[in-house]
Amino acid sequence: MSLKILLITLVCASSGLHLFAAEPNQDFSNNWHQWRGPLATGASPSGTPPREWSEEKNIAWKVDLPGLGSTTPIVWGDQVFVLTSINTGRVDPSLPKPEDQPDRPFGITYPNTFYQLMVLSYDRHTGKELWRKIAAEKVPHEGHHGDNNYASASPTTDGKRLYCWFGSQGLFCFDLSGKLLWEKDLGPVETRLSFGEGAAPVIYQDRLIINRDHDGQSYIVVLDATDGSEIWRKNRDELSTWNTPLVVEAAGKTQVIVNAPNRVRSYHLDNGDLIWECGGQVSNVAPSIVTDGKNAFCMSGYRGSFAVSIPLDSKGDVTDSDKLGWTLQQGTPYVPSPLLVDDLLYFTQSNNAILSCVDAKTGEILIERTRMPGLRAIYSSPVSANGCVYFTGRDGETLVLEQGADFKILATNKLDDAIDASAVIVGNSLYLRGKRSLYCIRESK
């Protein structure tokens, strides 16, 4: 089966959406190769996970995780891949102790101990650890917000290689059995108030795309995925963001789209040429862009709210133009990314459990800023499968809604762990990465 036929089979033929060049014989829908899933929308096209679970119900397996991390796992074949960081306690005596450092906002201190940046692989069916590799052992050059860590960017895979991005600590490429193939140091960045890093890498065919917006010279860089060599980079007039690029084939071009406070920009994957741009966002941009193959839906929600639908056949600066499909100035997310499924665009307000849903084609508000009972703060992003939408709060509680324009609760589920990572759905299983444990949730036979 050709790749084009495979994708059209799995995604609605009318969407024209092509987001990932998998191996032709690989079952695309039964993997979750990047942090927002096979379509980069948060939706699973073929998943059938449970609606209900608890620590005693529908837990196929649960494993303790070493260290600290908030990366959403990815799944390829029979493997679940997770990143983590482990403070070894080994001190670099040349660096100041945390208690001897100047006061910084949010009580952030710079480390003086070595961290192990670790990659773990588990059997997705049984939870058995298959391998673990220490990618590097370093003293990070700056601290991070109390809700962040040194393993906050999800890995990605093309089914041949696993790409693990620990930000300023380095980029590491493994084969799927854990053999290091190559590594690359892109140097340190200066994040806003030392909040830490978090934008995930994106793989498209044999190109790896990384966004490095920070308070120094920001840039986007495209690397050869086979060896890490640089193909092109473009400087950006942006400050710190935590936005993962989106790659989509549209309007006769392969576009790389990145959101940021000054502009949403679309670059040509081949050479980095600017295709279109649009202003209007607010600061500290984190939510990932989603697309239906015709429009890019971009939003941000820190110290303001803004969402916009931008046609992918745009050219030049379309800020405030009649080219835009629709705009919205309320209820948009700060950290969580939106979910797009069947022309329904779901998102939460700031980091709160306040839900909105709009018609992605028209911008019509279908569910307007409705509080989700039982949930409080949310960092994870919603996912969907089989007519259900899943929202997970930071205290480990997941609300399951019926997909549609009405607010209908199907189940509320609680786990005994703090959860910031987004859920992952593959087949009949749902995977949740907590602060302490990795869960596989599957209907008990």
UniProtKB/TrEMBL annotation:
Residues 119-365 form the Pyrrolo-quinoline quinone repeat domain. The keyword Repeat does not apply. It comes from the Bacteria. The keyword Repeat does not apply. Residues 1-21 form the signal peptide. Keywords: Signal. This is Outer membrane biogenesis protein BamB. It comes from Thalassoglobus polymorphus.
